[in-house]
Amino acid sequence: MNLKELSAKLNLSQTTVSRALNGYPEVKEETRRRVLDAAERYNYLPNARAKGLATGRSHAIGHVIPISSKHEMVNPIFGDFIAGAGETYSKCGYEMLISVVEDEQAEEAYRSLKRRGVVDGVIVHGPRQDDPRIPLLQDLDLPFVVHGRASGLAPDYSWLDVNNRRSFQRATEFLLDLGHRRIALLNGLEAMDFAARRRAGYELALTERGINPDPGFEISGEMTEAMGYRGALELLDRPMPPTAFLVSSMISALGVRRALEERGLRMGADVSVITHDDALSYFTTGADVPLFTSTRSSVRDAGRQVAQMLIDRISMPDAPPQQVLLEAELMVGRSTGPAPAD
Amino acid sequence: MNLKELSAKLNLSQTTVSRALNGYPEVKEETRRRVLDAAERYNYLPNARAKGLATGRSHAIGHVIPISSKHEMVNPIFGDFIAGAGETYSKCGYEMLISVVEDEQAEEAYRSLKRRGVVDGVIVHGPRQDDPRIPLLQDLDLPFVVHGRASGLAPDYSWLDVNNRRSFQRATEFLLDLGHRRIALLNGLEAMDFAARRRAGYELALTERGINPDPGFEISGEMTEAMGYRGALELLDRPMPPTAFLVSSMISALGVRRALEERGLRMGADVSVITHDDALSYFTTGADVPLFTSTRSSVRDAGRQVAQMLIDRISMPDAPPQQVLLEAELMVGRSTGPAPAD
DNA sequence: CTGAAATCTCAAAGCGTTTTAAAATCTGCC
DNA sequence: GGCAGATTTTAAAACGCTTTGAGATTTCAG
């Protein structure tokens, strides 16, 4: 059933039917009812491609996910973020389009999405410092919102980020208050903007208390379980091991816990651990006291908001870019305690 | 730059240019070269909507992800599966479209995708027994491939599944061979087809060795960390606790480990654990002996294959449905050992 | 009644492709 | 030089919608 057939059935022109369906004012209320009823009855929905061709918009939003061929890593955060964004899209009548591409082809992917008119805008994931995608997208004139930020670039674009510097500063201060002096940082890849900000917060807290950050206590890498495990073991086996770990992801924190267990150390007593917690749905521990003390910020909620920001931006292209900074919550769990006496 | 402008620049008709670009034989080789060069130079790519409208296909594949409003869970497997499928789509020039919808709206989502012509086919995720989506899609005449299977339905549709019954049977036998007699099963939600098959395999192995499956040793639920933790604690606190756990997901297995640790039990010595491992990229433990003994099957690889099956199906609609059954590998790690003497 | 304003409806032109049916151009052979 | 047949190119018609500009019809003040 297409528009032509539907209007024939109703003895109306395609124009009138189209207007009735799209809520234009110049159609009598009774006619509109009749059209809406018939559309419902005949199960009519406008063809998306034809509509898109006529209106020049696709009502779709792209997410380009670069996969490095070296470390076939899918960010564990991805699923929850997508779920959040997807909720918003469903609500607003947008489609979500995901392109999984090799790292080096990301730029070409954006160009292609734009030129072929496949999407009305894109979300930028995992920004690095001076991320080249941002000027590229500005140049392409393709609306976008960044999940995160890219230091080093003019801030004239829309983004939503967690206050990473602040939250890691607070977490470090919390450990310092508990008497810890040797605090290790297991961070994400240095190139990622969020990792740099977290490190800055960590180092700031230390220097403000007169402690010189020890580069040997800072490890960064892909945030896997194994990275947490190996990183922790390596540091624990030093002559002067850390008494506390600040970890950038829940998954790596699980690796740290495994390392502690293996060395016969009790988490929260012998060694303290704070992790960043993206509130992933499959890691929620229910109502009781959480296992890990953490800086907590729901990535799903971020997805919801980022999607909404982009939709707003598409519908009002001339509005100034919007920036949102979320504060992470410090949740005290059972993985932290006073520093053991030396 | 559109086709009209491009052909004007070349002093050719749109037809010729279109044919040259799409590899039709009735165009002189020299002309084709000229066209291809110009397309490259002027950065021309055909508008996807217009092309779709003309050809009647969207070159997009839909994934409907139902989110239950009760337990806002995103399957942790999702990310890796999508990454695998996305690789195939990129290679074959398809777009991937994801719809996140409330559980009850899944049916309407499929109908809408079909009627609006948004996708050429869909992947069905997480099938249940007698899953109503399968007859629905057959009825809608929308090509689909199921990741998993739905027992109870005529098998005249395409699917790719892991041999869940067999792999859990083997895992159970492995534990029996190690002398375990009280083996608990921490399974996924009973309604899920894969969970039923795993249970069948587990019970089959037990009965074949003359052991009556104890329903009290079977727990099923959403496969979170907390579920593994609580389930294990509950069973461990019985007068006759299990000496081994068979767990349906890596994440829940981490919860089991936490429970063991809390009760002062050594995994692999006091209590054995086998988990199913979907080879999620962020849980790979590198080259060393894996922490968990597991039944292993890469869900990412499944994604790649399922996507290819669907693309094949779309291009050859009259070919008979295809079925693929993958065997999981039993990988022995450090979480299993001989049953302790009573 | 009349004529202007307000309301409703319509035919037709676009959106950027593919594809059909037909026309133009070439090739080789008598 | 002319003609059949093959090769290459073309104009125009879809595809299914929105939107423009204009034509009907109704309403109502004067």
Automatic annotation (TrEMBL), chains A, B:
Q: Does the keyword Transcription apply?
A: yes
Q: Where do the coiled-coil regions begin and end?
A: none
Q: Which domain of life is it from?
A: Bacteria
InterPro entries registered for this protein in UniProt:
HTH_LacI (IPR000843), LacI/GalR-like_sensor (IPR046335), Lambda_DNA-bd_dom_sf (IPR010982), Peripla_BP_I (IPR028082)
The cross-references to Gene3D superfamilies, in alphabetical order and at most eight, read: 3.40.50.2300, lambda repressor-like DNA-binding domains
> Which Pfam families does its entry note?
LacI, Peripla_BP_3
Q: Which GO terms describe its molecular function?
A: DNA-binding transcription factor activity; transcription cis-regulatory region binding
What region holds the HTH lacI-type domain?
1-55
Instruction: Provide the leader sequence positions.
Output: none
- The name under which this protein is listed is LacI family transcriptional regulator
